[in-house]
UniProtKB/TrEMBL annotation, chain A:
<dbReference type="GO" id="GO:0055085">
    <property type="term" value="P:transmembrane transport"/>
</dbReference>
<feature type="transmembrane region" description="Helical">
    <location>
        <begin position="133"/>
        <end position="156"/>
    </location>
</feature>
<comment type="similarity">
    <text>Belongs to the binding-protein-dependent transport system permease family.</text>
</comment>
<dbReference type="Pfam" id="PF00528">
    <property type="entry name" value="BPD_transp_1"/>
</dbReference>
<feature type="transmembrane region" description="Helical">
    <location>
        <begin position="9"/>
        <end position="29"/>
    </location>
</feature>
<dbReference type="InterPro" id="IPR035906">
    <property type="entry name" value="MetI-like_sf"/>
</dbReference>
<feature type="transmembrane region" description="Helical">
    <location>
        <begin position="242"/>
        <end position="270"/>
    </location>
</feature>
TrEMBL record, chain B:
<keyword id="KW-0067">ATP-binding</keyword>
<dbReference type="InterPro" id="IPR003439">
    <property type="entry name" value="ABC_transporter-like_ATP-bd"/>
</dbReference>
<dbReference type="Pfam" id="PF08352">
    <property type="entry name" value="oligo_HPY"/>
</dbReference>
<comment type="similarity">
    <text>Belongs to the ABC transporter superfamily.</text>
</comment>
<dbReference type="GO" id="GO:0016887">
    <property type="term" value="F:ATP hydrolysis activity"/>
</dbReference>
<dbReference type="InterPro" id="IPR003593">
    <property type="entry name" value="AAA+_ATPase"/>
</dbReference>
<protein>
    <submittedName>
        <fullName>Peptide/nickel transport system ATP-binding protein</fullName>
    </submittedName>
</protein>
From TrEMBL, chain C:
<comment type="similarity">
    <text>Belongs to the ABC transporter superfamily.</text>
</comment>
<keyword id="KW-0547">Nucleotide-binding</keyword>
<dbReference type="Pfam" id="PF08352">
    <property type="entry name" value="oligo_HPY"/>
</dbReference>
<dbReference type="Pfam" id="PF00005">
    <property type="entry name" value="ABC_tran"/>
</dbReference>
<dbReference type="InterPro" id="IPR003593">
    <property type="entry name" value="AAA+_ATPase"/>
</dbReference>
<dbReference type="InterPro" id="IPR050319">
    <property type="entry name" value="ABC_transp_ATP-bind"/>
</dbReference>
<dbReference type="InterPro" id="IPR013563">
    <property type="entry name" value="Oligopep_ABC_C"/>
</dbReference>
Amino acid sequence: MASTIIRRLVHMVAVLFGISVLVFLIFFATPGANPAERIAGKNASPQTVARVERQFGLNRPLPIQYALMMKKIFITRNLTSYVNLGEKVVPQVFKAAPITLSLVAGAAIIWIVVAIAIGAVAAAFRNSWIDRLLMVLSLIGISMPVFWVGTMANLFTQGIWHHTWLFSWVPPLGYVDFSKSPVLWFKSLLIPWITLAILYIGLYARVLRAALIETMQEDFIRTARAKGLSERQVLLRHALRCSLVSVVTLFGLDFGVLVGGGALLTEVVFGLQGVGYLTYQALETLDLPMIMATVIYASVFVVVSNAVVDIVYAAFDPRMRLRR
Amino acid sequence: MNPLLEIVDLAVSFRTSNGLIRAVDGVSFSIAEREILGIVGESGSGKSLTVLAILDLIGDPNAVVTGSIRFRGIELIGQKPETLRRLRGGAIAMIFQDPMTALTPVFTIGAQISEQIRIHTDLSRHAAQARAVELLDAVGLPDPHRAAARYPQELSGGQRQRAVIAMALSCNPALLLADEPTTALDVTVQAQILELIRKLRDDFNSAVILITHNLGVVAETADRVAVMYSGRIVETADTGALFADPHHPYTWGLLGSMPALDGIRRPRLTTIPGLPPALDRRPQGCAFSPRCGFVRPECLPAPPCLTGTMHQAACVIADHERAAARNQVLAA
Amino acid sequence: MSTPLLTIDRLSKTYTTGSGLTRAGKSLIRAVDDVSFTIADGETLGLVGESGCGKSTLGRCVTRLLDVSSGRITLAGTDITRQRGAALRATRADLQMIFQDPYASLNPRRRVRDIVAEPLIVHRRGNRATVSDSVRRLIADVGLRPEHLDRFPHEFSGGQRQRVGIARALALAPRLIVADEPVSALDVSVQAQIINLLTDLKRDRGIAMLFIAHDLGVVRQIADRVAVMYLGHIVEIGATEQILAAAAHPYTEALISAVPVADPARAKQRHRIVLAGDPPSPANPPSGCPFHPRCRYATDICKTAMPALREMADGRSVACHHPVGIDQAA
């Protein structure tokens, strides 16, 4: 077991190294994209550019530049932005991370719970009108663009219906730290959570329904029935447990991607200054240190959540444990 | 004495776009307490469906079951789901062909057995688990404590089938339905499992319906045999009588098709020409008539009924003609 | 004595399993371990054993569908062990295979006509007209009718599909066919038809066969000689009737006694040996004789020394320290 974990950690570090080198090369070694020219500003004289190059160490060999940047990100944590000169990048990411994490984790709880409920009900009433209705609804959920849903939600909860009893509790857009007021934190995030969750509810409900229906054809389901289990017990105990594996796989990828900045649109629509928002801004201004920092943060999350999924996998399905 | 289970005129049909197709057609038999009944037939003969129908486990919404299935005098066809559920795994248990896929892969053997015990008794979790270990020991699994803590895929095929049997026996069933329990196993393991099944009536007082395609398996295990062909029982008798004096040409064909391990090696096996009829294209008369070498006009209008008392066969060949006809098939 | 058609000399096939960067995490499985035998022209050797004994792996090595780890395969005087490319393709014309599941081995999108013609076309045997003639003849030889030519595999029953598979294997007039459990997926009555077909074909065409099966009755019906495998080793090999009448290896003895007999009167008289436990895993074989933990005759020597396959006075070979019913003096 210990060797498995060590192997996994080595694997993670290797993946992170690969990603960081790749991103570094894309932004620093692409011909015609000299970062010094960007920092020096438009129409800067060659002398200015040269001075900037020296100042930022951009004239040194690429491996040194890469090592310096990694040192500034991970060890000294004093990497500064190229755009807002002097502003440190790492603390910004650390400030944005809890916002994104709050948004995605809350949404994830909602979508997992609701999707399992919908998937199980649809599979239980397969081919009936309940099943069809639920599947049409989830298809609608998948097809609605998240920024549109968010804008609509804002329109109703912040605008036209804000003064009705229904939505008068909704606080103004923006994030309230959990430590400041848990209640307000919850209220400010509830609508974004639902907005973000809708797409995934639709997706996961459909995947789970398909997996459940497939599992219900297995021999061991017939054994479970022959034991005298009720149809509900067969579905919830035997079939669901085996079908959740496909959902866990999806969840690991989706969660990592969202925490890593994939919730950008939701963050923008609801004015949440999360990692996605930060990446978005950095890309607009081509703020390379900021891009490096957010990309590395994001890949850490994707890789870590994948590792967690593998462990959860093994917990759910002993077949995976044995395969090692 | 009343039989334990009595089936009268059982039919299983499927609704299809071409109308109703009869997969099991007028099957009647009964089984006494502690009796082992073997049902033999090839794929598509309806033998599995017959047994699945007993507990309403066919699991196809298009299946229609008619006739009568009485267990200890209680009619099971059309019975309330709740009553059937209490019988399943309780008084009537079932084991299936493929032990590789018959157990849920995500639960331990012990958990799956104690789950069944807890459905049918009010034993505590702990007591049920202890009983599960006892059962695994009783079916001859080595190191039953460790086996209970294992997942199905950690056991070999033979061990898994023992675990499945232990689970089926967990509530002392009066009747065990075994659907090809040894087909997926190697011969040496099959011999172990058959020995275990023969012992059930002494250790657990269970009657067994053993479904198989292997005449050797019934010959060595069953007290009584029913041979099925194309949805009907074509011959049924005590095992000794059936093998000593088989009545139906299909039974002859089956016996002749089996390569023997001893005696003279026949240069060619006896074969039954052609294939069983598709269920929707069954002839009007005897379903075996297109493959039978002894067809007569009276075979064609309607399928012959099972006649005889102890040894019944659905065939028009008269007693005095039988030996000659059989020799024609089996000596060829 | 003439040279045999096929000679297998000390053939081994090992696999490594398990993941991991280090060697420690892997385990070595000897699926086939130091196996030697020959098949004469026109002879059928039955290869029996239970699942996991390595009989299918051996069959796949012989047809070169798997690469061997060590040892030598000689077909008609040619060493085919490491053949590749054109040479291997030429060998395949002499060496065909029939599989257990005919459905999985037939392309579902092609008609029978094309399936059977394919080897002829690939090996450039004849022009369009002669290929068409050959296909018709082959189809008739395996007991199918001309109207079957334009059907797809899914339109056939299991037995008919196996006939198509046999027709394809016969197309190039091979000298050796490796048949891997060709009848075990079929119903008894259909199984008998296919066994009779194979019996006729080997008699009429003089094709040699390596017939892999787990059913001793089937093997007896078709094989001239039989080899019994246990955990990657051949434990007994000799004339079929000789071995089935009186097995010399305790495993063969148990295997024969485990086969259920369709005769209750005889079944009662039979002395049944029920082996305890399951065959051990090839990843973790026992020391000494692989059969000793389940053997009722095992002594101390069986736990330490692996018995070699030795020829007995009656012509058969047995790998056992205490062969049943045979005097040790030989």
